[in-house]
C-alpha cells in the first residue's frame, strides 16, 4: 500500500503535470459554479437591495424567509430539482437532468438566498445612513435602489465571493441532479467522494488541494475587498 507521502507526491504530480482528467474536472466545476453565482447575483442582488431599501407590507416576513433559506439543506434542494427535471416532472421534456445545466439550477437555488440575504443587510445598513439625504433630495425608489447598489458595490463583491465559496464546495445537490457522470457532470466535490470510496486517493487528494487553494483565494479576495472598503471609508 502506498504511503501517505507517496500519495501526496503523486497528487502534487497530477497537479504540476496538468493531468487531463484533473483539468477537465476543475474546468467543469468552475464553469458550473461561476454560472450559478452569476445567476444568483442577477436575481439576489436586486431582490436583497429592494427588501433592504424599500418599505412595504410583508417586508419583515421576506427578510426572515431569506435568512431561513440561507440554511437550505443541499440534498433537499437536489431532490426538489430532480423531481422537477425528471421525466415525470413539469420540466422533464427539456431533458436537463444529469447535465451541467441541472447542476447550475441546483446551485443557483442554494446560493441565491445567501446573496439576497447578505445584500439586504448591507443595503439596509447603508439606507439608514443615507435616508435623510434621500428624503431631502426627493430621490425616487428606483434611483434610491440604484444609488445604494452602486455605493455598496465593494461590499457586494464580498457577497458574490461568499456565494462562490458556498457553491464550489457543494456536493449533495449536484450529485443528485448531475449523476456524477464521467466527462459529463463530474465536478471536484463529487469526484473526491467517488475516488475516495474507490481508493484512488491520488486524484481525490489532488482535487482536494485544488479546492483548498480556491477556498484560500476566495478568502484572500474577501479580505482584500474588505481592506479596500475600509480604506475608502476612511478616505
TrEMBL record:
InterPro entries: ABC_perm_TupB-like, MetI-like, MetI-like_sf. The chain crosses the membrane at residues 30-54, 61-85, 97-118, 154-181, 201-225. This is ABC transporter permease. It is a multi-pass membrane protein. One of its GO terms (biological process) is transmembrane transport. GO terms for cellular component: plasma membrane. Its main location: membrane.
Amino acid at each position: 500500500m502506498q504511503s501517505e507521502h507517496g500519495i501526496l507526491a503523486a497528487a502534487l504530480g497530477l497537479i504540476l503535470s496538468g493531468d487531463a482528467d484533473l483539468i477537465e474536472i476543475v474546468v467543469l466545476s468552475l464553469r458550473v459554479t461561476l454560472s450559478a453565482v452569476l445567476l444568483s447575483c442577477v436575481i439576489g442582488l436586486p431582490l436583497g437591495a429592494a427588501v433592504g431599501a424599500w418599505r412595504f407590507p410583508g417586508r419583515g416576513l421576506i427578510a426572515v424567509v431569506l435568512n431561513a433559506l440561507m440554511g437550505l439543506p443541499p440534498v433537499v434542494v437536489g431532490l426538489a430539482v430532480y423531481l422537477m427535471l425528471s421525466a415525470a416532472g413539469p420540466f422533464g421534456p427539456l431533458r436537463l437532468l444529469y447535465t451541467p445545466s441541472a447542476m447550475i439550477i441546483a446551485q443557483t437555488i442554494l446560493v441565491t438566498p445567501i446573496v439576497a440575504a447578505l445584500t439586504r443587510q448591507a443595503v439596509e445598513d447603508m439606507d439608514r445612513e443615507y435616508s435623510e439625504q434621500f428624503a431631502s433630495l426627493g430621490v425616487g425608489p428606483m434611483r434610491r435602489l440604484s444609488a445604494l447598489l452602486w455605493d455598496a458595490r465593494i461590499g457586494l463583491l464580498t457577497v458574490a465571493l461568499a456565494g462562490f465559496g458556498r457553491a464550489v464546495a457543494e456536493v449533495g445537490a449536484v450529485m443528485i441532479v448531475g449523476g456524477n457522470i464521467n466527462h459529463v457532470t463530474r465536478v471536484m466535490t463529487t469526484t473526491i467522494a467517488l475516488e475516495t470510496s474507490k481508493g484512488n486517493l491520488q486524484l481525490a487528494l489532488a482535487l482536494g488541494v485544488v479546492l483548498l487553494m480556491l477556498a484560500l483565494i476566495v478568502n484572500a479576495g474577501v479580505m482584500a475587498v474588505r481592506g479596500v472598503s475600509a480604506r475608502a471609508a476612511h478616505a
